[in-house]
């Protein structure tokens, strides 16, 4: 069953034919109505389109207010970056995040023995250590589930006690206000993450997201750099 909220969204997202830019006064002036109305602003089609635009703006404001009310009802929240590594969806507190950056070339280091250390990469002219979170977190490599949608791999620049480090990820979903009341204890199979690294699990927008423990992640980063 489709509710009224869905119907409103469908109506709001339906494209508006800006015929005045194609065949009207701002186009090739081939519209047969121009002879009668002289200018598009006098035409009922133009007036109907303007009404739809105003309704759309009003709807977006209404939806924004509904979303704000919904977030307020969730209680205490934590700003969290949700991202994917292989098959695992993970959450990182944004206070640990410096930046989400495009992929860049990683230069391997000779004679380095840390499995988690991939090498270094250039971040605005400075060479920054690049880590594999798959190795750091003890994740099992996976194929992910992105075949049916276009995804863009990114690099996370994460704050650490020794300075920022870079970590490639397969997909970034975005920053969300995760309700702390919805977080449950991490089970053994929480995103295949070694349990010390999981502070909890939350069901968020159809996904099971494992939240990373900040202190344990910092310790693992320090070990990988040591």
TrEMBL record:
The protein's matches in InterPro entries, at most eight in alphabetical order, are given as: CheW, CheW-like_dom_sf, CheW-lke_dom
Per the UniProt record, the lineage of the source organism begins with: Bacteria, Pseudomonadati, Pseudomonadota, Gammaproteobacteria, Pseudomonadales
In the record, which residues are listed under signal peptide?
Answer: none
Protein name listed in UniProt: Chemotaxis protein CheW
Q: Where in the cell is it found?
A: Cytoplasm
Q: Which UniProt keywords apply?
A: Cytoplasm
Source superkingdom: Bacteria
Provide an example Pfam family for this protein: CheW
What region holds the CheW-like domain? 77-223
> Matching SMART domains, A to Z?
CheW
Q: Which PROSITE patterns match?
A: CHEW
Which PANTHER family is this protein grouped with? CHEMOTAXIS PROTEIN CHEW (PTHR22617:SF45), CHEMOTAXIS SENSOR HISTIDINE KINASE-RELATED (PTHR22617)
